[in-house]
Sequence to fold (419 residues):
Amino acid sequence: MEFAIPSSAYIHIPFCRRRCFYCDFPISVVGDHLNGSNSGTIAHYIDVLCQEICLTHSFGEPLKTVFFGGGTPSLLSAEQLSRVLDVLDRQFGILQDAEISMEVDPGTFDLNQIRSYRSAGVDRVSLGVQSFQPELLSSCGRTHTVENIFESVELIHQAGLQNFSLDLISGLPHQTISQWQHSLETAIALQPRHLSTYDLTIEPTTPFGKQLHPGAKPLPTDETTAEMYRMAQQVLSSAGYEHYEISNYAQPGYQCRHNRVYWENRSFYGFGMGATSYVQGDRFSRPRKTREYYQWVNGWLETGNEEKEAKKTSEISTSEVLLDRLMVGLRLAEGLSLSSLRQEFGRQKIEQVWKCLQPYQRAGWVDILSSDRQSMIINSDLPLEGQMKLTDPEGFLFSNVVLVKLFETFDEDDSARSH
Fold:
């Protein structure tokens, strides 16, 4: 099987002032007073990160997208961010029109800093707002205030960064429908080019996971969170935002190019503690703890061999590749091309997928669109052309149900073949 050459890079910056109560990302807490300009810990991490980048094999394709995620990348100094971009450019090349995105948190940067990020090459920022209610920000452990949000948006405008995104979370403890509507409407009034709306996920290792039980108070009910999802779709679509992915909305021309790399199952580099790469069909993660990550890079320096030991996957089956494609591709509003799926996986596999999905088409969760974007009612064989997609909002809302059924179907198929 041939694999595309990666032309995107994710850079993980793990530092945060403190850990939010819902967060299970690999991070390192530095407190309220340390940042890239005065922290030896952050400076050392940047040294090791740049070493890792320099050790990574280049396939000769320059980078079209770069994404600084975290953690809180806006804790870096502009000089540190510029250094990482320079190392990436020397090792791989960065196209002049590349999308260079950066996650920033309200209250963690000033005007000079955001201007310097832009001068270094950043042309898109994603602001971690989460909520416009101070009591909800406090209850989920965020360090910023509502005032910080408005101040940060003003700084972004003053820096001339037109392409900015806001992140919001629904389903927070004690959150009401009216609060969610207020957050959506306030976000729209700030005129971001892009909006991400995430439903709270309770991870067992987080403070929320230890205190809260899914479905129990003070969490909103499943019915309420479903209503929040439908409300976001209605309010944001009415305001001119395209619902182009399950959790993401954009004004025309402002979809996140980097994140589409993941949803289209394309190859990408990953750098930094806990980062995941997908290169030459091999998906693997780096160590999630600082000391282990440093040891991993140092071991690579000493031996000259890249030891992809952190959760490296074994050779995957055709069914697993297909499931990967379905899992990410069905997140997109346009869904997946039937002709492309047939060419890659064969008619029999795709007919098996369709047999699994037919009940969900009858329920109104799955749709097959013809070349002129009209819905088709399919009673037997799947057509050779067209797009297979989840409906908006109901199919997106129940996407986990659909995906679990697909996984169960192909797990049973692989088990039967192995016996």
About this structure: The CA atoms of residues 251 and 398 lie 25 Å apart.
